[in-house]
Amino acid sequence: MTGLGDMNAMRRRLLHMHRAAGVGHLGGNLGCLDILAALFGQAMCESDQFVLSKGHAAGALYVTLWAHGRLSDDDLATFHRDGTRLAGHPPASGIPEILFATGSLGHGPGLASGLALGWRLQGVQGHAFCLTSDGEWNEGSCWEALAFAVHHRLGNLTIVVDANGLQGFGATREVMNLEPLAAKFRAFGANVTEIDGHDPVALEAALTVAGREGRGAESPGVPGAPRVIVARTIKGKGVSFMEGRMEWHYLPLTDDLLAQALAELDETERTR
Prior knowledge:
- This protein has helices at residues 4-21, 26-43, 58-67, 73-76, 108-122, 140-151, 172-176, 181-187, 200-211, 255-270, and strands at residues 49-52, 128-133, 157-163, 166-167, 170-171, 191-196, 227-232.
- By secondary structure, it is an alpha/beta fold.
- The chain has a single domain (4-270), classed as 3-Layer(aba) Sandwich (Rossmann fold), CATH 3.40.50.970.
- Helix 1 packs across helix 3 (58-67), helix 1 (4-21) runs antiparallel to helix 10 and helix 5 (108-122) runs parallel beside helix 6 (140-151).
- The protein starts with a helix and ends with a helix.
């Protein structure tokens, strides 16, 4: 389980990296960092694969890989630069943990379903994890992929929905209301869990259970059904002036705001 100090170290590194590059998308990156930390820190085994469907959270993925020794500080220094492997949306550019170029929303669930089916056909054990946004489910391709996964009984697939309630043009309920999300996923035939996406205990439990079937072990729920974890999160988690604010889907940091954000993270550790 990743503690507050470790998570804040990742948040600090993410903030510094985005400030150095002068780019936005910080709100969604901060909001899903707990999920990525639990996936790479506890849930995933060497035989598993991850697909970041919400590709604008590439920064959070890079920092997670950095925290686990798979990218260096020198790598992160190239973020968003010309010729980098660490583009603003993850390219398939020589990083072993990144199989697909993503960021055109709605593609990740289909790619992850293809991985899971390919393993099934080859008799290979492994679990495919895919992280989507909640706004991404405005895309019909996501529902088509879920129907495909249920039909083919891809119990070796887990889709995690980063449900922060906000997307590029406003609240998800106002842009296209898909709530109750969990009920819709169940109606498609998936095994569904709804959790607090910032609770490390809940994340570890849900993700660890999800990964068992792809490795040949029994897991709760309908046998052979793919899993969907609806993780309720807060956009901009950990930085008060970003939390729950749609504009931090876009805004870059200034030096003053970076200093304010870092001071807040320091304060949360002092008072815990």
